Amino acid sequence: MESRFNYAENPVGAKAAKHLVSASKVVMDSSVPEATKELMSLRISQINGCAPCVEIHTKELEHAGEPSLRINLVPVWREAPVYTDAERAALALAEEGTRVADTAEGVSDETWAAAAEHYDADQLAALVALIAVMNAFNRMNIITAQPAPTSYRPGQW
After folding, report:
1. What is the separation, in whole angstroms, between the first and last Cα of the chain?
2. Could you tell me the maximum CA-CA distance found in the chain, to the nearest angstrom?
């Protein structure tokens, strides 16, 4: 697949991407466990169908030593016994936060309460920011038809 547009080579596109990267740094520097952030990023990207981001977050999880079973079962996390209750709460928040248009309430009170049981206020803020930033990255990649970067190395970006 060839991209429609290289936003990295466009001054406006590059500036927008730079601000998203800055926002994601706040999330990456948070105390939310790395595995949780990557699992959420992978799930959001799967829902949105963003091949570049699915590849990147799969490789990041592999590099961090996550077992392939945990990576492969992300799409069916509700049925898979390999995730902690905290990870399940984060994945539910990621799914509902990505699919806000699918229900009248967006993110349910039940999902928010489950996340609040496992994460403090700063971590909740980071989770919400991660959901927003990943959805923005996914949309930029999908709209401009970015191909999966098969040469991506963990930690590259």
Report:
1. 21
2. 46
Cα distances (angstroms) measured from residue 114 to each of 48, 92, 125: 23, 9, 15
Q: At what angle do helices 121-143 and 34-48 cross, to 10 degrees?
A: 40
Instruction: Give 105's pLDDT tier (boundaries 50, 70, 90).
Output: confident
Query: What are the boundaries of each domain within the chain?
Result: 7-143
Domain 7-143 class in CATH: mainly alpha
What does the block give as tokens for 49?
Answer: 């169908």
pLDDT digits (tens, 9 = 90+) for 9-57: 899 999 999 999 999 999 999 999 999 999 999 999 999 999 999 999 9
Please give the backbone phi and psi of residue 77, each rounded to the nearest 5 degrees, phi first. Answer: -55, -30
CB 90 within 8 A of CB 36: yes
Is the pLDDT score of 156 beyond 80?
A: no
Q: Indicate the helix (H) or strand (E) that contains 83.
A: none
Phi/psi at 104 (nearest 5 deg)? -65, -30
Helix residue ranges per DSSP H, 29-81: 34-48, 51-63, 68-72
